[in-house]
Amino acid sequence: MYHIYTASFKDSNNDGIGDIPGILKKLDYLTGLGVDAIWLSPVYASPMVDLGYDIADYKSIDDQYGTMDDFRELLAEAHKRGIRILMDLALNHTSELHPWFLESRSSKNSPKRDWYIWMPPKDGQKGKKPNNWRTNFGRKAWRYDHKTKEYYYHSFFREQPDLNWRNPEVKEAMFDIMRYWLDMGIDGFRLDVINLLYKDAELKNNEFRLFGKSKIYNRNQPEVYELLRDLRKLLDGYPEKASVGEIYVVPPGDPALAASFLGGGADMLHLVFDFSLAFTLWKASSYYKTIAEYYRKIPESAWPCFFLSNHDIGRSVKRLFWERGKYAKAKLRAALLLTLKGTPFIYYGDEIGMENVPIPKRHIRDLYGRLLYPFFKGRDRARTPMQWSDKPHAGFSKQTPWLPVSEKYMSINVKKDGASVLHTYKALLSLRKKHKALQKGDIVFFNKGENNILAYSRQCEQEELIVLLNFSGRKKTYAGGFDTAKILFSTHGTRNPTVGSCPSASLPSRAPMTLRAFEGIILKRQTA
Ligand code: NOJ
C-alpha cells in the first residue's frame, strides 16, 4: 500500500500543488515500483486549514486537486493496472464551513444543532469552559460561539468542529457518504482518528496525570466498537473492500488498544495502524519486542499491517537515525517492512530515501507549526514535494512548489537513485510478488534479536524464506545455520564472498552467516 500525500506527489497544471491528474501521470511509476494499492490523502473540497482533513463537502473534489472526472479517470486507470484506491475519510469532524456546521451554529433550535457537541458555559458563568478537555494539538478544546453563546468542542483545530456521533442522523449521513464512494468503485477507506469518534456521554473532566493516559473521557469510548461493527457490515455489502483505522494515541503506540478495533478478526476494521514500529529504537531486540507484541495482541484471524513514516510523524530516514549509515539503515528498514507478515504501507518518497526537510518559518504551511513555533515547527518537513528528477523543483512542478523542495534533490531522486534505496524497494517488492511465503506465509522468529541480528522465516506451503537483518554498524555473525539455503537478496547488492562465509549464490550446509554492517539478506531454504 502506497501512501500519497496528494499536494506533494505531482503537479500537473503547474500551480505548485500536486493534483489528481499528476497522480494519473505517475501510475506507471507506481506499477513499476510494485504497488498494489494507494491510500490517497483527503481530496475533498476543503478550506485546507488542516490540509484537507477539514472537509467542507464529502462528495466533491477540491478544485486544487482537480475535478470529479479526474478522480473517476484515476480510479479507472488505477484499476486497469490492478491498483486499488483507498480514500482518506475524516468521520470525527468536519470543516467549520461544512453546511452541516453552518446550519448547526445558526441557532440553538437548528435541526442540526445536535449534530455537533454544543455546551453552555460551565455553571452558566461567562468565560467558563464546559470541561477541561484539550485538543490533540495541546490547546483548549472548546470554542465560544458569540451568536448562540455556547461552546462547541473540537479535537483538533477550532476550524474542525467534532461531530456528535451519539446522534443517529450523523451516522446515517456519514454512511450515506461512504456508500457514495463505494458505489463509485473505490476500494475502501483509511479512517482518520477512528478511536476519537465518541466522547463520554456526560463529558466528564479528564484527570490530570503527568504521565500515562489522561485523555480517558474524550477517546476510546466503548460505543465506537458497535459503530465499527455496523461499518463493517456496510463494507461487507460490497465485494473486496477494505478499511484501515488510524488509532490515535500518544507515541509510541498501543498495540493492545489498536488490536481491539479489529474485534474478533472479521467483524470490525480490516486493518489498524499502531504507531509502535515507527517509533521503535534502532536495535534488533527492540524490533523483535515491538513486532512480537503486535502479533500477540491481534486476533488470530485478523491481518497485521505496518508502516514506518507518515505525513504526521515524519520520515523514517531521519527519525531515530544518525547520519552514519542512514541509507544503509533505510534499506534495512525496508527489508524489515517488506518481509514481515502483514500489509506494508510505504509513505511516498520513502522509497527513494527522502528525508525530513527543515522548513524556514516563513514557509511553514502547517497551522499546527505556525501556532506552536518555535517549540514545534509543524509537520511540513515530511510533506515536501516528491523528488522525481534533478530538474528544477525536482521535476515536481514548473512553478515554485507550495513547500520547499529538499536541497538533496539533485542526488536523491527517482531518476538518479543516488543512494540506491529505490532499487532496494523495487527488488524487495518484486521478491514479495514472486514468493507467496512473503505475501501470505506464517512468520516464525529464530531469535529475539540477540547479537543485534533479527532472524525469522516466512513459510507458506512448501516454501520457506529466511530473513536475517543486522542492525549493528559492525560485521556480525549469525550462528544459527541452515541445512541448505540460497541467497535471494541482500540490501548491499551482490554479496562479497570474501566478507561473507559463503559464496555469492548459495550457502553451504550449516554455515554460520556473516552479515556486513546494516546488511539484510533473504534466503530460500532448499528442500531436498
Ligand atoms: C490525523 C491526520 O493524520 C492528521 O494529519 C490530521 O491533522 C488529524 N487527524 C485531524 O484530522
Describe this structure in words.
This protein is globular. The chain has four domains: 2-94 and 168-350 and 407-427, TIM Barrel (Alpha-Beta Barrel); 99-153, Oligo-1,6-glucosidase, domain 2, CATH 3.90.400.10; 354-406, no CATH class; 439-525, Golgi alpha-mannosidase II (Immunoglobulin-like). It has helices spanning 20-25, 27-33, 68-80, 99-106, 168-184, 223-236, 255-260, 284-297, 326-337, 367-372, 421-434, 436-440, and strands at 2-4, 37-40, 84-89, 118-119, 142-145, 150-153, 188-191, 242-246, 271-273, 305-307, 343-347, 442-445, 453-460, 463-470, 476-478, 485-490, 506-507, 513-515, 520-525. A hairpin with a 7-residue loop joins β12 and β13. α9 (326-337) packs parallel to α11 (421-434). The strands form four sheets. The protein has an eight-stranded parallel beta sheet, covered by helices on one side. The protein has a six-stranded antiparallel beta sheet with strand order 12-13-14-19-16-17. The chain has twelve helices and 19 strands. With 528 residues, the chain is α/β, with parallel strands linked by helices. The protein binds 1-deoxynojirimycin (NOJ).
Distance between the termini: 36 Å
**How would a textbook summarize the main sheet?**
8 strands, parallel
- Cofactors, ions, other ligands: 1-deoxynojirimycin
The CATH architecture category of the largest domain equals Alpha-Beta Barrel
CATH fold-level name of the largest domain? TIM Barrel
Number of helices: 12
Q: Which ranges are low-confidence, i.e. pLDDT below 50, for 5 or more consecutive residues?
A: 497-504
Beta-strand residue fraction: 15-25%
Strand runs, count: 19
On the 0-100 scale, what is the average pLDDT?
A: 94
- The Rg value, from CA coordinates, equals 24 Å
Q: In what order do the strands lie side by side in the largest sheet? A: 9-8-7-3-2-1-11-10
Count of all domains: 4
